[in-house]
């Protein structure tokens, strides 16, 4: 490799080291809340770190760059798997801190939550590292094609609509049943969130000049894709952990239809996350001057 992305490499090594420390601590302490028993085991982090180390070693030679890229993507997948549950931890922490009545949902497995959060950061850093490896191996400036943008838009449409439409259909069924008692609320949050994700992909994939600041699209793309991929890989790694018996918790569904519905819901989140991430990386390739601005804005928001 002729020019190593040293800044990105230092970042990914630093964050992955924190992920190893946090996951090791969570393993030693153990799970403090029952809800986290169904999440992927903490040692998934060690697999991700091993793959990342192999990627870094392979990147030192020109011939090994392709291998380094493959290993880097694999490491990112395992880091996302290790982060599974981080978004749910965030919601639980919100209810705990604000004092909004939420019953058992206001409890947090803090050792595991910290580890999952750091693993999510490591996943994002690993994606950035791997993408920079690709940039060092091939010319990516020409990748800003209309055909690729159109494909991403249709992919986003296909995986944005199912979940909010399902929630809307269930709400309409609940309202029309006229049964006494509390009814499911109108899915305004779901419609807003997934509608925003679709608009984000449309803006990122457009060949026209952005109507909003480019750095804002990049930050939104990274945050949105990270959340969706973490939730999506929660299903993948959690299901594998339960099927192999390495998970100490279990999820029971009423019937096969309920199981299929859950798999489809999480599957659409996973694929939508892939679409948002691909659109974000493609947009950054087409607007390289915006990368520094997005990083600066993100660091400023984190510091505040």
The end-to-end distance, rounded to whole angstroms, is 37 Å
Shape: globular
Describe the sheet with the most strands: none
Average pLDDT across residues?
Answer: 86
Which terms summarize this structure?
about 300 residues, mainly alpha, disordered C terminus
Description:
The protein is mainly α and 304 residues long. The chain has 2 domains: 6-138, no CATH class; 143-303, no CATH class. 73% of the residues lie in helices and 0% in strands. It is built from 11 helices and no strands. α1 runs antiparallel to α2. The two termini are 37 Å apart. The model is unreliable at 139-143 and 299-304 (pLDDT under 50).
Describe how the helices and strands are arranged.
Layout: H1 6-29, H2 44-58, H3 65-82, H4 86-98, H5 110-137, H6 146-160, H7 162-177, H8 188-205, H9 214-244, H10 256-286, H11 290-303
């Amino acid at each position: 490799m002729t020019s190593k992305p040293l800044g990105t490499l230092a970042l990914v090594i630093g964050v992955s080291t924190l992920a190893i420390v946090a996951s090791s601590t969570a393993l030693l302490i153990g799970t403090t809340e029952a809800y986290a028993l169904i999440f992927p085991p903490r040692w998934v982090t060690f697999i991700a770190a091993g793959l990342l180390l192999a990627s870094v070693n392979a990147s030192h030679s020109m011939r090994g760059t392709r291998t380094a890229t493959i290993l880097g993507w694999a490491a990112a997948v395992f880091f996302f798997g290790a982060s599974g549950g981080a978004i749910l931890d965030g919601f639980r922490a919100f209810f705990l801190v604000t004092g909004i009545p939420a019953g058992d949902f206001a409890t947090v497995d803090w050792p595991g939550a910290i580890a999952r959060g750091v693993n999510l950061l490591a996943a994002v850093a690993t994606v950035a590292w791997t993408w920079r490896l690709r940039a060092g191996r091939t010319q990516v400036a020409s990748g800003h094609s209309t055909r690729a943008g159109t494909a991403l838009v249709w992919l986003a449409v296909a995986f944005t609509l199912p979940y909010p439409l399902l929630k809307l259909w269930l709400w309409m069924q609940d309202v029309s049943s006229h049964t006494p008692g509390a009814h499911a609320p109108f899915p305004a949050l779901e419609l807003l969130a997934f509608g925003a994700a679709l608009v984000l992909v449309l803006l990122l994939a457009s060949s026209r000049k952005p109507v909003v600041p480019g750095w804002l699209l990049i930050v939104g793309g990274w945050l949105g894709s990270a959340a969706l991929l973490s939730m999506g890989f929660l299903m993948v790694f959690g299901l594998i952990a339960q099927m192999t018996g390495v998970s100490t918790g279990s999820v029971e569904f009423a019937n096969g239809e309920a199981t299929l519905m859950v798999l489809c819901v999480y599957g659409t989140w996973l694929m939508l996350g892939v679409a948002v991430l691909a659109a974000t990386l493609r947009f950054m390739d087409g607007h390289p001057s915006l990368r520094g601005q997005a990083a600066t804005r993100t660091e400023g928001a984190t510091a505040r």
